[in-house]
Amino acid sequence: MTRANTRPSDGIGRAAPYLLVLPSILFAFWIIGYPIYDMANMSLHAVNRFGKTGAFNDFANYSRLFSHKLFLDCLLRTLVWTVCVVGGTVLLSVPIALILNERFYGRTLARIIIMLPWAVSLTMTGIVWRWSFNGQFGMVNATLSSFGLQDTPVEWLATATTAFPILIAIGILVSIPFTVTVILGGLSSLQADIFEAAKIDGASGWQRFRHLTLPLIRPFLNIVLVLNFIYVFNSFPIIWVMTQGDPANSTDILVTWLYKLAFRYGELGVASALSIVMFLILLALTIVYAVLAMRNERRQA
Amino acid sequence: MENRTRKSILMWLLLSPLVVVILFPFAVMVSTAVKPRAEVLAYPPRWLPSEIRLQNFVDMWEATRLGPAVMNSLLVSVAATLLCLAIAIPAAYASSRMQFTGLKLYRQFLLVTQMLSPIVLVLGIFRLMASLGMVDKLPALVLAYVAFNLAFSVWMLQAYFQTIPKELEEAAKLDGASTLQRMRLIFLPLALPAIGITAVFVFIYCWNEFVLAMTLLRSPESNTLTIQTFSLVGGRYQVDWDHVMAATLVASVPVAVIFALLQRALVSGLTVGAVK
After folding, report:
1. Which of A53, A155, A171, B101 could bond A85 through an S-S bridge, CB–CB 3.0 to 4.6 Å?
2. pTM, two decimal places
């Protein structure tokens, strides 16, 4: 091996990493970057319903969006939806992960069952639950009345007061598997000896959980909170399949309303303005996530 | 031993409400899918049908044109998975193995693209595909799916790649192997399990995706499985629920089985990716 031989490969070596990452960057700019630019552009101009852009219109799309009678409703409902689903998911997932971290007969089976909703697409989940909650022939009503828990069948999804809580419950159900997985990962990284030591020192189960487990899995909880917040904020199929935002827009959140604005009402200007607003919200969340993740990395290093 | 049995019973009792809720929709699917149609719309509904009518599946397959939809889903998912890996593997290799200026920026770029969901961009993507004349064409879906899985794939692969020891490659370098040779002959075989797990995740994403498929596909012939199944329910006055449940069962069971079989590998893979 001579020096003359390694030199040119060093030159290629310097360009190599850029050549290797370039395709992924170009691809993302093409399919993700350009649409963002296009919508930002559209949101600042007059747009007809066929998508032809006209003159700059003084943020008229944005002011129409913010003054729209459904905007505040949908924004608030998105907040309720996101906070309830994420909060419920994490509150349920911690004890579930603690259970699944114990050794007991059938643990593998239990883990598989808990992970199942993850494997089924949200669309299929939504379709099956929609049928299950059918007011006349659905098995939810049938099961409840066979246990004597209800006298008359309920039109669950056609009633504004029941539809949204049901959607939230389904949202929680499908978010549990991922959340449990990450928390389990955190639990399995804990060392057993400090727990033994605490036990010998007479700490109760609750004390061990409160003062040892919880602080130690805190980084994992942070990550799960932010990631779930982003997923749930963006969650579309369950609501679309089960209620399409009905009855009377009472289950619309921003994403379902956005879809209606863009593809049903042909309000392309307002829709693109809303897309950009949501993009900015997501960007802010991403920065929060990045800061949290970096803090984790520093702690581990 | 006695102690462990009691603990197991307690654990299962604690989990039982959730287990019931998780298994409930599967029970509904099976129950409705094998019922004679008259009993599907009988009041009050019952769990057990008078006969187990497997003919429903045959009827459903014909009536709902599920076969072509399965083919479309397979084509799109396989193509997107392969293209995604072809772009992500080199990128992950570079960002886990090589030091270069801009690496940090590249990682942040990945993070931002990972957070964006199709629904927020769907209007822009539709316009992009329309300008390319690709609306209602399956390659449009492939491109979009690749774009939304790239960040995740690169992220996950590079977390894995960092765990593969460098020494072998360094030895090969001393023996005069070029970068490409090292990657192909030494690195890729060791990275195969990680690549497999990433592929499964991308495949499942594509197989299950909803909003892009609903937006970019227009004619029934090009529908993927999720959209074809949804079209049996959405915007219809009368829904043949026995067919719909048979269809959801056919669509869900294969993926659920793959997932259950690979559960351990998938979960440990994801933890590596999530924590790094």
Report:
1. A171
2. 0.87
